[in-house]
Design brief:
179 residues, alpha+beta, four-stranded antiparallel beta sheet, three-stranded antiparallel beta sheet, 2 helices, 19% helix, elongated
Length: 179
Amino acid sequence: MSRIGKEPITVPSGVDVSISGQHVKIKGSKGELEMDLPGGITVSQDGDTLQVERPDEERENRAFHGLSRTLLANMIQGVTEGYQKELQIVGVGYRAKAKGKDGLELSLGFSHTVDVKAPEGVEFDVPEPTQIIVKGIDKQAVGQTAADIRSLRKPEPYKGKGIKYVDEHIIRKAGKAAK
């Protein structure tokens, strides 16, 4: 049995879970998320807990068992607390400016500024010109949006200039040695 898949999911108060066949809808204070379960995976609700079960010991069902349980737990955490990723901009003249809640204007050393539109369910916060906070209720959308912003100017190993996650450590290389 999957160690992750067999763990029950505790549903906090204020969160509504509706299950109809393979479709699960979770509604909380921050919003609403829904998902279709893969394969023959089923979810049953017993009071304030959810239990994820698989039909048999087939390899694909074993793989989907833990995945489905984790995705449902992430959805519950998303609609109650939400997710956020912090990015830091390093470099002279590199900065970010908010364009409402759904857009960013980035100056990254190119001859032009780079505009980034937030996907649905994701919003940006720019407390400082060198700091970007990506927020939302969908863990995958928040992580993917942060990764897309980081990919616009990845940190380089010599001076560390670029966009990096706040908790990311950049391994630095030595420059050319002078003779």
